[in-house]
Amino acid sequence: MQIRPPRPRRSVLYVPAVNDKALAKIASLDCDAVVVDLEDAVAPAEKATARERLKAFFGGLEKGPREMVIRVNALSSEWGADDLLAARECRPDAILLPKVDNARDILEANDMLDDVDARPSLSLWAMVETPKAVLNIGSIAELGRDRGARLACLVAGTNDLVKETGVRATADRRYLTPWLMQMVLAARAGGLDVLDGVSNVFRDLEAFGRECAEGRDMGFDGKTLIHPAQIEPANRAFSPSDAEIEEALSIRAAFALAENAGKGVISLNGRMVERLHLDQAERLLAKAGQ
Q1: Phi then psi for 125, rounded to 5 degrees?
Q2: What would the pLDDT profile of 59-76 be if each residue is shown by its tens digit?
Q3: Relative to the CA of 234, which of 7, 186, 194, 222 has its CA 20 to 30 Å away?
């Protein structure tokens, strides 16, 4: 189930709000989304300064093709409430909430935004980076069915999960995979997008490409990134192939034929194709810009 129009989120780059040089480069990058970060990338002594730089940056920002997201500090922290109000003022596409433990954390942020008349199109993204979040992932993702809750995307916080649980961060992510698959399953049940966690080894792009391919095969919509060099491999891995696009177009065309109007199942190129395959095809084509 998908209750929002699909959009590409293959590559989502974190950029510190205090890094003016990195912020200036955003317009030239080919990533699908940017998360301007007020949380992990900003030291406690710089939080207020980062908030002002954020406002200045968005004040001069020209609307481009990429999604612009702001990650605030946890609402339970001393900076969270001020961050959320500043983010609302900047009019991003979405606000990313860290340290989400349960559905109540999403609803609290939504209530705060409603209280300050935030526009309905402002979405919330949620970091899944605590043991409680993994245990509560079903009820968190269920908010995706409620348009009033604003929740549009889940983001795996793999570094924090490793830190909080003590599992070993192996190259094949074998100990994280069960939790990652729970995130994908819950996201699909709630009609949400879901993004794979970051890879800290940004110089080995071959290994990074393998991790992107793994995330794609697990069902993630894209990957969060920490360095611009990771954008192209992520875009390549999470983009549908020419063959996949051609097949999706053929499914769309077949169901559009007058003789197939109202049919739930048709025959196409020697195989049975159902309406659910048409839904999958439309989603793929939308994300491919078709």
Answers
A1: -110, 150
A2: 999 888 899 999 999 999
A3: 186
